[in-house]
Amino acid sequence: MSTVQYRVAFGKNDEAVEGPDDAPVVVSVGAADAALRPEVAFMQGRLKNTGPTGPLFAAFSDGSAAAAISRLASRS
Fold this sequence. Notes:
The protein has 76 residues and is α+β, with helices and mostly antiparallel strands. It is built from three helices and four strands.
């Protein structure tokens, strides 16, 4: 199984991160777009990724991407 790092940006130099720094897949989304379903945000170009898309699509499918992004976007 591939490891994914998720990043939700709240502003310049202000982001919440979950996952290891050496993850082969890095997913980035702005806080304003974090409420969208991740696969919709990806298709609209609002969610960006680096690395292979296979593990990204698997994370969309099993719901782990939505859960991680939701956790990060709801920081206090």
